[in-house]
Amino acid sequence: MQKSRYLMIAGVAALGLIGSAGLVSGHGGATGIVKERMDLMVSVGKAMKTITDMIQGETEFDAETLRESANFIAAHGGEQMSRLFPEDSIEGPSEALPAIWQDWERFSALAEDLRVFAGALAQAADNPRGGNMHGNRGNSPIGMSSGDSPMTRGNPMMGSNPMMGGNRMMGGGQSPMDDPDALANMPPEAAFARVAQTCSACHTEFRKKQ
Questions:
Q1: pLDDT (tens digit, 9 = 90+) per residue, 170-180?
Q2: How far apart are CA 132 and CA 134, in angstroms?
Q3: E strand segments, the chain
């Protein structure tokens, strides 16, 4: 039950990015850096959909395909993504909000989170699947208490604090879901959830509502 709920919520979080890829695929009129980043979002969205379909059992799980898709996302996160958002580049059909430059530190931190957690997902590709996600504390995933589920903590789509990776970025106590090394040793579902959450947080805060 926990496993199916875990995957369901992770999939819902991923829909923001996947849906965006479909929306921006018809970005006629975009030029320059705006078109470049829209094209990137389409490509990242396709990679995310490939992973989502495997994680949710819509397509056959293949560790190498997951690793390639996750590595693609990681390679285009961090500075490779944030560099595509020079200040005030919101002309034409851009879906970027001015909030990006009003809180650049937050935006660039999320871009870096995408790089780091997608990298962890690539490393986790060959790990045993989610059936081994339960730790020694009841039925909560990876041994976390029921009030600190990796899917509800910091997930804006679940109505909780959208500050994804807050402990990691603020230097506080680090939970396993904020630790890329820990995620790399968990089932791939865990790192996938963290990538999906990061995408969802970025879209919630920095992308125009459709």
A1: 344 578 889 99
A2: 6
A3: none
Q: Which two tokens stand for residue 83?
A: 């560099």
pLDDT tens-place string over residues 78-132: 999 999 999 888 877 788 899 999 999 999 999 999 999 999 999 999 999 975 3
Residue 58, Ramachandran bin (φ over 0: left; ψ between -120 and 50: alpha; else beta): alpha
Domains of the chain: 2-206 (1.20.120.10)
Q: Is 77 exposed, middle or buried (CB count within 10 Å of its CB: 0-12, 13-18, 19+)?
A: buried
DSSP bridge partners of 96: 207
